[in-house]
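Incident log entry.

Two folding requests arrived from the same account within the same minute. Monitoring flagged them as a possible duplicate submission, but the sequences differ. Recording both here for audit purposes.

Request one:
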Amino acid sequence: MAARPAGEYSGGSRRKLALGIALVGGVDAVLLDEPSSGMDPGARRAMWSFIIEATGKRDGAFVGGAKSDGLAVVLTTHSMEECEALCTRVGIMHQGRLRCLGSSSHLKLRFGGGYLLEVHAADDDAAQARLAAYVARELGGEETEDRHFGRAKFRLPACGQSMARVFRAMEAAKADLGVQAYGLSMPTLEQVFLSVVGEILQG
């Protein structure tokens, strides 16, 4: 491959080459524009691992500008997955302006509308009504959509809420409510982006 002209490389290979050239001088900071665009999933994850290694981090988070013993990287991307994999600080731009900046978890709590609780319980109206009443009373939750085969989803407010509190509340009433399984998640960065843009468009 080293003997081939760079112009004959695939798009993904050109991006790998560009990243290597950017880092070869031992720089302290580098700007990347869509670094993994056009790559297959395996190559994309290999590049992410390389970037994480280059920043001096080992835990899957990466520098947004402050790591004295590693490379500082600023990147632009349309891939929310790439943001989740690499960024400790995320900025959302819309119409050429920076609209918000913060950690992924902060933005999710600020703009994502709280936690999402999904519960699988007995598939009958009385049991589901008891479940909805309990979640509303104890956790301030609001059902988000129609139930399907005993599965219900609730949006929980982020303010004054913690995952530990939700787990305690669900475990305490699990048997009484006939809960078979439940899961708690935060909104995705894509949902955060849509929320931020929606607020802007609404004025």
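Request two (distinct sequence, not a duplicate):
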Amino acid sequence: MIGRVALIALLVGTAGCAQQKKAEPLPPGVECDANRVLGLKGKPRSQAIEADALARSGAKRLRWIEPGSAVTMDFRVDRLNLHVDKAGTITDARCG
């Protein structure tokens, strides 16, 4: 039983290490494209996911938004907002 749990944990942990296809450059005038990271929905919050999301979206900044957290309403064209649930799983991605 413990062996199975360890094997599953190892497989899940290495799944995020798979080499990702490099994102194509954004069109001129676009500083963040959240559509490029919608595939991250359902993935757990991590530094690797953060780096991947920034690279894919083209954003220069990233903000994690947790349920019930207070956030400023300023709109930044270069910022990606990743919304997570209580468990830290990504539920949405938006620029701004």
